[in-house]
Design goal:
This protein is mostly helical. The protein has one domain. The protein is 76% helix and 0% strand. The protein has helices spanning 2-18, 24-51, 59-79, 83-91. The protein is globular and about 45 Å long. 15% of the residues are buried.
Length: 99
């Protein structure tokens, strides 16, 4: 899942570099980049919380992550029916041939 999110962030960044003018596709790329980046960050934080007993979590840390995820969910709600968003969603399932 992390690799799918990293790939999507890269693809979104490439698209945004080539298409700087505001348009619906650029808005979608920005939202999708936010979703992929947040998913990657949240997954890393989850791994830290699960396996790093030396990490102390503050309320501020947790609230910041909750706000980040909330923002990403709002972005997802706006683009969830777009073909690129659906392709990203499918990519999170992984490569079935890799097993």
């Amino acid at each position: 899942m992390k690799s799918a999110s990293e790939k999507q962030k890269g693809e979104s960044n490439d698209y945004l570099k080539k298409h700087p003018a505001p348009c619906p596709q650029v808005d979608c790329a920005n939202h999708l980049k936010r979703v992929a980046d947040t998913f990657s960050q949240a997954q890393q934080q989850r791994h830290t919380a699960d396996y790093d007993n030396s990490k102390t979590w503050t309320r501020t840390d947790v609230m910041a992550l909750i706000d980040l995820v909330d923002s990403a969910l709002q972005s997802w709600h706006q683009i969830r029916n777009e073909p690129t968003a659906q392709a990203y969603l499918i990519s999170l399932l992984g490569n079935p041939k890799a097993t």
